[in-house]
Fold this sequence. Notes:
CATH class of the largest domain: Mainly Beta
Structural class: alpha+beta
CATH topology of the largest domain: Beta-galactosidase, Chain A, domain 5
Low-confidence stretches: 25-47, 49-69
Number of strands: 21
Mean pLDDT: 83
Distance between the termini: 43 Å
Strand content: 15-25%
CATH architecture of the largest domain: Distorted Sandwich
Number of helices: 18
Helix content: 40-55%
Amino acid sequence: xxxxxxxxxxxxxxxxxxxxxxxxxxxxxxxxxxxxxxxxxxxxxxxxxxxxxxxxxxxxxxxxxxxxxxxxxxxxxxxxxxxxxxxxxxxxxxxxxxxxxxxxxxxxxxxxxxxxxxxxxxxxxxxxxxxxxxxxxxxxxxxxxxxxxxxxxxxxxxxxxxxxxxxxxxxxxxxxxxxxxxxxxxxxxxxxxxxxxxxxxxxxxxxxxxxxxxxxxxxxxxxxxxxxxxxxxxxxxxxxxxxxxxxxxxxxxxxxxxxxxxxxxxxxxxxxxxxxxxxxxxxxxxxxxxxxxxxxxxxxxxxxxxxxxxxxxxxxxxxxxxxxxxxxxxxxxxxxxxxxxxxxxxxxxxxxxxxxxxxxxxxxxxxxxxxxxxxxxxxxxxxxxxxxxxxxxxxxxxxxxxxxxxxxxxxxxxxxxxxxxxxxxxxxxxxxxxxxxxxxxxxxxxxxxxxxxxxxxxxxxxxxxxxxxxxxxxxxxxxxxxxxxxxxxxxxxxxxxxxxxxxxxxxxxxxxxxxxxxxxxxxxxxxxxxxxxxxxxxxxxxxxxxxxxxxxxxxxxxxxxxxxxxxxxxxxxxxxxxxxxxxxxxxxxxxxxxxxxxxxxxxxxxxxxxxxxxxxxxxxxxxxxxxxxxxxxxxxxx
Length: 638
């Protein structure tokens, strides 16, 4: 491995580090954001206090009226919706094979959602939200100039008992908001026997006599607190946030840290509240308009919540029509194949593209994961039960595919190594003061023997997309969640073998309060691989002592960086480096460097085939131009 190969390797590491470091805010940005968040928090608190005070006052007044059984006052407060103004909250549980959903007659809303086939990191039922952790409802103006929300009104359950199971065919469950004169508004929820999707149809009868004149839209309010479900809170927070999609466009998201709020005038197809492995998605069949989206992350490491997401959106509604305004909830694991299923047979401009909730990387990195890594992962998973063995086989296949590049990189390094004595002769003949002349002589030697200084670097750079693709694949793969292998209890999280509670400056912040064994093994093997390469290039690297330090420091840096990452990722890099070491020794045993030198010497006798516009030609042109500039600068000084 020559210096260009070393530079290529360092470049790969720096790019990987850059993915993490460059996306982190600077100290100034953090300070500014904290100040902004503090101001926003104060303003928000004041607004909430005012709202609570107003709500309490209204509630006191309402309770007082109810206590007096003042029908006239109740009618004045709730107008045509007075029949729904009072009641007792009741809960109704419906479940199928994959979800367990609790509805409340107060607001006719989803009260709780549990994914039955999953558990939290501490083996508790996996609940996306429960009780008051989420709210859903519509706000509208009535014909007596009252602004009411369905969240505070009582619906009548129709055809639904306390506990029901959907087994054979989809079933519909209706919650009816009754008004005067026989008018009503229905929330009809439909659940299939084996699906994560819940359909909601909002339809009414006679609502034109209830709502304010010219009402053609309803304001939908949906918010939820996102629970911590995984062991590594900081790592889970990196993949948590509020995501949304415009009609016929790609998926976007709010900032995944601090506080963020955006007003979106364009039509939205869906909004999702997402954590690392699970999402709650709300889709409008006819699009949302005039949306305000907000997310706030909780910095308290002891909080059970990572963030809170809020969405306020307008949706079209015709009170004179009996046609339904339809929505779909998806309470789903972020599993690529499952999410892709919901777009099968759908026109391209209507596709939801929920697969974008799985962070496989952008551009070529996502394509590699989607069309190569995931199919290979699923293929091995179809007949192998051990995910540790699946990762091993995937690593072997990937290293086999990349072997030609590895071989070419090694051969380039070997050629540079056998040419080292001749390069030393050039350096001895030409003093360092004549750097351009020395470089030209070196380039002439490379040209004569048919060696390109970039031939060792390019193969490593070509492997970079796969390296980054795998970096994205493992933390995003719910298939690895809670899957054990050897000492690792969860391949989607870190495999701590040593933990401590004390806060250690710098260590706790950048390393964590644990040691991951697979990460440590990856670091040790990477250090050994670096040492092997440095020993084989000892003479060359003496010209770059600083590079030696960087190469030896890189494994330590990766240890800090990967300590809280998925153990499956560290396991993959550990295996990949081991196989690379084995390939290096195998290639070295078959390469006769004496014969290689003889081949290079034979190339000197062949006619020179100078490729116009080639890399060597451009490099020499740059050297000549630099020499001319230096000569001109020297003339001016004289």
